[in-house]
Amino acid sequence: MLQVRDNHFLLNNESFQLLSGALHYFRIVPEYWEDRLLKMKACGLNTVETYVPWNVHEPKKGEFQFDGLADLEAFIQKAEKLGMYVIVRPSPYICAEWEFGGLPGWLLKEKDIELRCSHPSYLKHIEDYYDVLIPKIVPHLSTNGGPIIAVQIENEYGGYGNDAHYMSFMKEALVSRGIDVLLFTSDGPDMIKSGSLPDVLTTLNFGSRSGEAFQTLEAFKPNSPRLCAEFWIGWFDHWGGEHHTRDGEDAARVLDDMLKVGASVNFYMFHGGTNFGFYNGANHYEMYSPTITSYDYDALLTESGDMTDKYNKVKEVMSRYVELPELDIPKIPKKAYGTVELQEQVSLFDTLSLISEKVTHAYPLAMEQLNQNFGFTLYKTTVAFQGTVELDITPIRDRAFIYVNGMYQQTIYRNDQEKMVSLQLNQEENVIELLVENMGRVNYGKHLKDAKGIIGPLWINNQYVFEWDMYPIELHTLPTTFHVGTDERYPRFYRGTLEVDELADTFIELKGWTKGNVFVNGFNLGRYWSVGPQETLYVPGPLLNKGTNEVIVLELEGNETNIITFTDTPKLGK
C-alpha cells in the first residue's frame, strides 16, 4: 500500500519513488496495450497512469460499456501481469483534450444543470455512474492484492471552480464505495488552493521550472511529497494550427532536475495515442479550436508507438537513477499498401432513411435534446419568404452547410465574425436545410458547457422560424447501398476495398480530399481536414483483416480525386 510519511512515499513500508507514465487505454487498440506498457517499463518506469472517460463508459444514460477499447479492467490486469503499478484517475471530468473533458454529452440535455459543482442533478448522475464504475476498480486496489496504488479525486479543479462541498462529495463518493488506497488531487502550482483538500495529497502539473513549482507546494502544504502528476513533455495540436514539439534535451534536463532531488514524476504523455471517432475535444479561449485526431502529443512514443529520440534521451536520464530491465519487445511492422480507388459513392441526402430517423419539432433542438452525442444533425424547414433574407447564425454549433431548395449556398463556422448571412429565396415556398457538424465539445475552462447543433430558435427574415424536421446522424450505422438516388450534393460517402495479405500498421493519406471521416471495416478512424497540421490518419494493424477490407470516406466539402493512399509513413506537420 502506498502511503505518505513526512515528505516522501512508502510502498509496503519501504521508501518508494513513483516513476510513472500516462497511457490512455481508450486511445489505443487493446492488442497494443502490452507493447506500449513494455516500452514504458523498458524506460525504467514502475507505474502506469490512466484517466477513465465517463462518456466512453456511459454513452447513453444508464447504458454502460466496458469492452474493447473501453475494457478498463483488462488494461489494469495487463499492467499487473507485466509487473507495473497503476494510478487511476476516474474523476467525472478528465480534460485530456478529450470530447467534453470526458463528461457525457447527455448531461446537457438538462438545460439548467451546472457542471463540476454541488448541483443536485449532476451529483446524482455521478452517483449512478460510480455505482457501476467503482466496483470494477475496487478488486484491483493494492489493498485487495491488485496493482492500483493511488486514485485521483477530481482533475485540475482549481482551474475551474472553488466548491469545497463538491470536492468533499467527490472524495466521499470514492471512499464510501471501497476506495481505500492513497487519494490525491492535481493542479497547476498557481491553482492548488481551490483544487485541493486539507487531508488529501496535493500534486502538481507542470512542464518546466520544477524548483519553483515544488517551492509553491511546500509553502502551501509543508512536508508534502514532491510529485509532478503531469510532467508535460509535449503538447497537443489544433486544426489549422502548427504541430507542437518540445526539444528532447530540454525535457530530459527538467526530468533530471526532479529526479536528483528525489521527486516522483508522471510523464504526460508517455504515449498519446489517437482520438478515434468523434472523441477529440476542443479549447475555447479567444476562439473555438478543435483538437486534431492524432494525440501524438510529441510524447516519448509516437502515435503509432515508435520510440523517439526524446524517449532515448529520457531513458538515458532514467538509467542514472534506476536499473533498466532488458526486455524483448517485438517490432510492430508498418506497410505501404498503396492506392485504393473508391469507386462507389452516394450523397448523404440519399441515405438519410438508412442512417437516421426523422424528428419533428416546433423549434430546432440541440443535439443533446435529440439524444445525440456526436456527428451531424440535418435541420430542415419550409418558409414562405421571398427575396433576400438574413439568417442569424449565432446559435449554430459548430460548422454548418446551408442549402436552399436543394442547392448548396455556403459554409458557416462558429468562429465567423459576421453572424448574419444573406440567403436568396426565389420561390413562393423555399426549403432551407442546415447540416450542422459537432466538431468536439470544449474540454477545459469557462466554455465547458458546450451544447451542439442548433442550440436555440433561428432568427430568419426578422422573425423566429418554427416547424422543423431534424435528422440526427451519429454514423453508428453506415450506408450499405451505394449508387442510389440522384442527389449530387456533398457530403458524400465513397466506398472501396483494400486487399491485405500481411497485417501491419499503416497510414491513410488523403491528398485531394478536404474534410471528413474515414471508416475501415466500420471503425471510425477519426477526422481529416486539409487545413492541417495532420495529413495522415493512423490505421492500427489489428483493425485490418487478411483479405478484403471495406474503406468508407465521408467527404463533407469536396474532393479532387476518389483515390486514397495507404503509406507506411505518418505526416504530422512540418
Can you walk me through this structure?
Belongs to the glycosyl hydrolase 35 family. The protein has 574 residues and is an alpha+beta fold. The chain folds into three domains: 317 residues, Glycosidases (TIM Barrel); 98 residues, Galactose-binding domain-like (Jelly Rolls), CATH 2.60.120.260; 122 residues, Galactose-binding domain-like (Jelly Rolls). The chain is built from ten helices and 34 strands. It has an eight-stranded parallel barrel with strand order 4-5-6-7-8-9-10-11, surrounded by five helices. It has a six-stranded antiparallel β-sheet with strand order 16-27-17-23-20-21, with no helix packed on it. Helix 8 runs parallel beside helix 9.
Question: How are the SSEs placed, and which strands pair?
Answer:
Elements lengths: L1 E4 L2 E4 L2 E3 L2 E5 L9 H10 L4 E5 L2 H4 L14 H10 L3 E5 L30 H18 L10 E8 L8 H12 L6 E6 L4 H4 L5 E6 L3 H11 L6 E6 L15 H12 L4 E8 L10 E3 L3 E3 L18 H10 L19 E4 L2 E4 L4 H4 L3 E3 L14 E8 L3 E6 L3 E2 L1 E6 L2 E7 L6 E6 L4 E8 L15 E2 L3 E3 L2 E3 L2 E6 L18 E9 L5 E4 L5 E6 L2 E7 L6 E4 L7 E9 L7 E5 L7
Parallel strand pairs: 4-5, 4-11, 5-6, 6-7, 7-8, 8-9, 9-10, 10-11
Antiparallel strand pairs: 1-2, 2-3, 12-13, 14-34, 15-28, 16-27, 17-23, 17-27, 18-22, 19-24, 20-21, 20-23, 25-26, 28-33, 29-32, 29-34, 30-31, 30-33
Helix pairs in contact: 8-9
